[in-house]
Design goal:
- It holds the Pfam family FecR.
- It comes from Caulobacter sp. (strain K31).
- InterPro entries: FecR, FecR_N, Ferrdict_sens_TM.
- The protein is of the alpha+beta class and about 325 residues long.
- The protein folds into three domains: about 5-110, no CATH class; about 135-245, Jelly Rolls (Sandwich), CATH 2.60.120.1440; about 255-325, Phage tail protein beta-alpha-beta fold (3-Layer(bab) Sandwich).
- About 35% of the residues lie in helices and about 35% in strands.
- It is built from ten helices and 16 strands.
- Strands 1, 2, 3, 4, 5, 6, 7, 8, 9, 10 and 11 form an eleven-stranded mixed sheet that branches. It has a three-stranded mixed sheet with strand order 13-16-15, with helices on both faces. A two-stranded antiparallel sheet has the order 12-14.
- The longest helix is centred in the N-terminal third of the chain and has 30 residues, at about 45-75.
């Protein structure tokens, strides 16, 4: 028989529980904090009960906010809305309940949705979490955008170009009237007849030539890439051209992620690009475990489950799409 729950103790833990809910749903939880939360939640039945109530309240407030917004849109003159269902156990009162409402409203506006909205203002083409799209430009140029990607049109009619502001894209060019330029970070790639895959992670750029010939120009010099060649650069340094397996670099275009003896930390970082929540990895030894596998981009949850089975890690699902591997 389960242990009885001390209501007084549960209510005393309400502020801590609410803090954990808001922190988890913020998307800014560190692996260490995620581990602390697991310990906090399992400390006693009262802790578990307080967390369940806090989560229930957050969901109720979120539904209230959404209902208010819908009602205001349908009936602009209506400014009031009935409170949360009184049958719900309202253990948060006074200032704590107000804090829950304010925090929950912020939580509704997810950080990825905000960034997507900003992307629409600063780019001509963009994709959200887990989204892919294609676009055709004039003069024989086409784009394939991967998840969380922003591209702006720059240059002129005489010298067309794009800027890969963030994310990853495959650019194909079959031009007869001059070269096409792809600006990314501190460098740019010149393409005339061919195809390249360009990825920009906060100014660290990787260019892979999939077909034809491309030239990468950088303040530190230039590199000519033939099909199967790859180069990396950042704001300070331009690397050397190296041969790579282009099937790995372009697997995302087929909806796949391919890893060959990649460290688990790198695999988790890649999965997080396609997951609307956050996957945390706890443990230095686990982070170094090699992973060999093929995963479907539209089945990230299944990929995490497979990784759990392959590595023997323990998987703990948390609110807000957060998953903890340890």
């Amino acid at each position: 028989m389960s242990a009885p729950i001390d209501d007084a103790a549960s209510e005393a833990l309400a502020p801590e529980a609410l803090t954990w809910v808001n922190r988890l749903l913020s998307g800014a939880v560190t692996p260490g904090e995620a581990g602390e939360f697991v310990l906090w939640r399992t400390r006693s039945p009262a802790h578990e009960h307080a967390f369940a109530d806090a989560l229930s309240m957050q969901r109720a407030v979120r539904r209230t906010v959404q209902a208010r917004e819908q009602l205001a849109a349908e009936h602009p003159t209506v400014t009031r809305l009935s409170a949360v269902d009184p049958r719900r156990r309202a253990f948060l009162t006074g200032g704590i309940a107000a804090a829950a409402a304010a925090a929950s409203y912020v939580i509704v506006v997810r950080s990825d949705l905000v960034s997507d909205g900003l992307a629409a203002l600063t780019s001509n083409y963009h994709t959200g979490v887990g989204e892919r799209r294609t676009a055709r430009l004039a003069d024989g140029v086409s784009l394939d955008l991967n998840t969380r990607t922003r591209i702006a049109l720059i240059g002129s009619t005489a010298r067309p170009a794009i800027e890969l502001q963030s994310g990853e894209a495959a650019i194909s060019a079959q031009r007869t009237g001059g070269a096409f330029a792809i600006q990314a970070g501190e460098g740019r790639t010149i393409l005339n007849q061919g195809q390249v895959n360009v990825r920009n992670d906060d100014g660290t750029v990787c260019v892979t030539c999939l077909a034809g010939v491309a030239v990468v120009e950088h303040p530190g010099g230039s590199v000519r890439l033939n099909a199967g060649g790859q180069v990396r650069y950042d704001g300070r340094r331009l690397g050397k051209a190296e041969p790579v397996d282009t099937a790995l670099a372009s697997a995302w275009r087929k909806g796949l992620l391919i890893f060959r003896d990649a460290p688990l930390q790198g695999v988790v970082d890649e999965l997080n690009r396609y997951w609307p929540g956050k996957i945390f990895l706890v443990g230095a030894a686990l982070a170094k475990r090699p992973v060999y596998g093929v995963f479907h981009i539209d089945q990230i949850q299944e990929a995490v489950d497979q990784i759990r089975d392959l590595t023997g890690a323990k998987l703990t699902p948390l609110p807000g799409g957060v998953m903890l591997l340890r």
